[in-house]
Amino acid sequence: MDNAFLDALKRRRTQYSLGRNLPVPAETVTALIKEAIKHTPSSFNSQSSRAVILFGAQSQKLWDLTKEALRKVVPPENFGPTEKKIDGFAAGAGTVLFFEDQDVVKSLQEKFPLYAHNFPVWSEQAGGMAQLAVWSTLANAGIGASLQHYNPLIDEQVAQEWSIPASWTLRAQMPFGSNEAAFGEKTFMDDALRFRVHQ
After folding, report:
1. Is the pLDDT at 1 greater than 80, yes or no?
2. How far is the CA of 63 from the CAs of 33, 48, 122, 153, in angstroms?
3. How far apart are CA 92 and CA 180, in angstroms?
């Protein structure tokens, strides 16, 4: 089956071995991320997804503060593997922070009260699609990434460090960089357990 979009989805894989040798300039990476999020669908065209893109020392700062936040909750005897994992994220070229703007959600709830209970769910769905769109777009450009969730543990520090608007809720972190290791084989469950087709 020849399909460029499916090919991009198939290239999207979790990469923990990241480096700083990006195959394209940082400006190109920024443009790719912006375009991916801009063209991600959202309910009522709400465009509730937000992103902060950190490169170099700024990305390192994020993972340093994440490490310190984890140090307060992970027992010292178990901290070694945790520190190694965080250092792996910091070894990349940058990180995308994904947020959902709650002011947008509240505005839609007020404007369309019949669907009020759905807008938070739809916002999360839009955010997930934005994350997939960015991840696949980066993979298509030869850039490795993974999706992490250290929120809400780091929410306050992130908001202070990068002057994040109060209405933006942190949802995920995506460290990215050069692929410094091959991908392992990906396994799939039987289609019969996942899909039903009626004609």
Report:
1. no
2. 20, 25, 29, 12
3. 10
